[in-house]
């Protein structure tokens, strides 16, 4: 059985015991009110009710987190760390070196918002992923699509009607029209380190010459891509799909996730349930109408229309019980406010617990990283966040990154605004 690449991060050398917090472990089980978590070599040794007695190891740092809540580090299944859509014009004039540094800043902001793993669905190469693994920069563990694919004139063809191209960095040329284009492009992406293949089976809101109702990559090409990845590591296929027909083409072609899904109809919902397809509804972007002065008029107009559609149809998909994994489309919305997504998911009908599970356990399953991530259980990587409120009573404070008081990734404390974890080696540090 092919497995997914697990991006590791440098683990802390010092073991840690967290005592007294309410523990929401990401499995959907009721919280453990007075919990204990033991972490060693970057992994969880124990997570459950406080064990009592004296610790078996004297070298363990014990941190009292009474009054706080611990949750798994969130997984944002849809980001574009190299993109800031309201800054596109300025970005076109930047040198590559500055663009890379800005991407690193976006990665750091995403991590500090409480996202310890993310899936970048187009716009960056594996250098960013590997720099995080090496401890050169702070950021979420990353899975990458490298580029997002569409036919000529489709969602990732940023050529204007006059033939001039709007600069839209995609490390591998993203246009696929023929069977040969499809095979060669998928091979190039996998050679370049793609963990997931991102395709667009519909047009979109942010592209100049198509709409979400237009069809993009056809069902037969979706099938061809799925059969190509099956010969490799079984990289999942994620489909940008907004209008009802393109959503159904993606599901019938065998994608693992429908990204956006704004206009999904009842037949599409049934197909998702039958096939176990994940929905990544990107509500942070769907429900956010951008500043009309900072984006093109076509984008603003389409956004107003499709926000209303998404509000109604995503709520219907939630009510029907489709598998949901959270993703923001950050880059289209601002970076570093990723935990606004579970708040929006609750607005459209998920319970706070369902929204948390969608952003942790379910997203780990989507990425095929659930052996190591997504829940706080013995044996898993110690990726977790600490907050000072009960998100099951009111989830809205999660939307503000300041309310995420601590972030631990692979047992290393990378954020500690309440200064509970003491000095080095549990302070944020980068490779030397
Ligand atoms: Zn996207």
UniProtKB/TrEMBL annotation:
Segments forming domain Amidohydrolase-related: 69-414
Domain of life: Bacteria
Listed SUPFAM superfamilies: Composite domain of metallo-dependent hydrolases (SSF51338), Metallo-dependent hydrolases (SSF51556)
Protein name: Amidohydrolase family protein
Protein species of origin: Brevibacterium ammoniilyticum
């Amino acid at each position: 059985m092919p497995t997914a690449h697990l991006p590791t991060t440098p683990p802390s050398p010092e073991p840690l015991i967290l005592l007294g917090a309410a523990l929401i472990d990401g499995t959907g089980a009721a919280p453990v009110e007075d919990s204990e978590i033991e972490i060693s070599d970057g992994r969880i040794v124990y997570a459950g009710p406080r064990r009592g007695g004296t610790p078996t190891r004297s070298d363990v740092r014990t941190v009292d987190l009474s009054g706080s809540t611990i949750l798994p580090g969130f997984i944002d299944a849809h980001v574009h760390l190299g993109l800031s859509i309201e800054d596109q014009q300025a970005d076109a004039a930047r040198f590559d070196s500055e663009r890379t540094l800005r991407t690193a800043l976006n990665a750091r902001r995403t991590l500090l918002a409480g996202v310890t793993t993310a899936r970048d669905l187009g716009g960056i190469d594996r250098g960013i992923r590997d720099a995080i693994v090496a401890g050169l920069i702070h950021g979420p563990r990353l899975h990458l699509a490298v580029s997002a694919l569409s036919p000529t004139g489709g969602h990732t063809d940023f050529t204007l009607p006059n033939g001039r191209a709007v600069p839209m960095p995609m490390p591998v040329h993203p246009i696929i029209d023929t069977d040969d284009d499809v095979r060669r492009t998928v091979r190039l992406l996998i050679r370049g380190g793609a963990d997931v293949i991102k395709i667009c089976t519909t047009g979109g809101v942010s592209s100049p010459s198509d709409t979400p109702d237009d069809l993009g990559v056809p069902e037969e090409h979706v099938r061809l891509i799925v059969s190509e990845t099956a010969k490799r590591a079984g990289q999942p296929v994620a489909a940008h799909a907004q209008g009802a027909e393109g959503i159904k083409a993606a599901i019938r072609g065998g994608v693992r996730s429908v990204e956006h899904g704004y206009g999904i109809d009842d037949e599409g919902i049934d197909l998702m349930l039958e096939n176990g397809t994940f929905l990544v509804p990107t509500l942070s972007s769907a429900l956010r109408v951008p500043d009309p002065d900072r984006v093109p008029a076509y984008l603003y107009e389409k956004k107003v229309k499709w926000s209303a559609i998404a509000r109604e149809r995503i709520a219907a998909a939630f009510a029907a019980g489709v598998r949901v994994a959270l993703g923001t489309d950050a880059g289209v919305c601002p970076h570093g406010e990723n935990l606004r997504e579970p708040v929006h998911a609750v607005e459209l009908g998920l319970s706070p617990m369902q929204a948390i599970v969608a952003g942790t356990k379910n997203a780990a399953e989507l990425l095929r990283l659930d052996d190591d991530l997504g829940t706080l259980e013995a044996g898993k990587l110690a990726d977790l966040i600490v907050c000072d409120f009960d998100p099951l009573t009111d989830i809205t404070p999660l939307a503000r990154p300041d309310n995420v008081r601590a972030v631990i990734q692979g047992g290393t404390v990378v954020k500690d605004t309440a200064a509970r974890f003491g000095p080095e080696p549990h302070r944020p540090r980068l490779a030397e």
